[in-house]
Amino acid sequence: MDATPRRMPATGLLLVTAGVLATIGSVILGDAFDWPASLDHRAAEALPAFAANATAIRLGFYLNLLSSLALVPVAIAFSAALGRTSTAVRAVTVFGVAGALAQLLGWVRWPLVVPGLADAYLAAAPGTPERAAVGASYDLINAYAGGALGEHLGWLLQGVWAVGTGVLLLRSTFLPRWLGAVGAATAVVWLPFTAASGFTGSHVGTVATIGTLTYTVWYVWLGLVGVILLARRQRA
Q1: Could you write out the three-class secondary structure of 144-197?
Q2: What is the structure's pLDDT at 186?
Q3: Where do the domains of the chain lie?
Q4: How far apart are CA 191 and CA 168, in angstroms?
Q5: What is the pLDDT of residues 98-149, one digit of tens each?
Q6: What parts of the sequence cross the membrane (predicted)?
Q7: How far apart are CA 64 and CA 1, in angstroms?
């Protein structure tokens, strides 16, 4: 008997949890912070908006952070579930873990660094060098941690993992092959659009909307994979 399915209930639960956390976090941020459009805002607009709803915004970003964190053991578990130790499987696993960690580095600035910047920005008088310095610090951190790490590196690495996982699932037997095809095809669509959105620094417009929608569909796919794994455990 294949030992692989015995590892799957925890993986399924993590996949469902990641999807639920990301969904709730995104809804909270959309309502409290006009996210993701607020990612385009400069310090003069973003920091007062953050301070006005800091508790809800921090909660939303913590949930997204935990969602990305949950994908680290998922990437490792998929490698074990495939039952092979080929170079391709190992490479896909590395991309999955690295992508999740890069996204974590992007998310973590919001609940831990930005609150202090928001307080310092509002404490400084308008037009003073102090306020300008805080604003410049926010813009720099937003560009580096958000644009460079979370979006460019994080989405690129996660995209490679998403496509690679879908392709590997096509060659596996523990999940329906059509499921792997859907996952790979969805990732192939969202990866260039989200990468373009991060590269241009624009989270509104046609390109960003297509990227966001297809990325959301891919997250739904992840949740579906999790539900199937949990359902198989229940039938076992």
Answers
A1: HHHHHHHHHHHHHHHHHHHHHHHHHHHCCCCCCHHHHHHHHHHHHHHHHHHHHH
A2: 93
A3: 6-235
A4: 18
A5: 999 999 999 999 999 999 999 999 999 999 999 999 999 999 999 898 888 8
A6: 12-30, 61-82, 89-108, 153-171, 178-200, 212-231
A7: 37
Residue 67 has a pLDDT of 94
**pTM confidence score:** 0.88
Write the secondary structure of 43-79 as one string of H (helix), E (strand) and C (coil): HHHHHHHHHHCHHHHHHHHHHHHHHHHHHHHHHHHHH
Return the pLDDT at 34: 92
Helix, strand, coil abundance in the chain, percent, nearest 5: 85, 0, 15
Ranges of residues in the chain with a pLDDT under 70 are 1-8, 82-85, 201, 233-236
Q: How far is CA 234 from CA 8, 9, 75, 106, in A?
A: 11, 9, 23, 37
CB 179 within 8 A of CB 225: yes
User: What letter would DSSP give residue 201?
Assistant: T
Task: Say if residues 129 and 177 touch (Cβ distance below 8 Å).
Answer: no
Dihedral, 205, 121, 119, 139 alpha carbons, nearest 10: 40
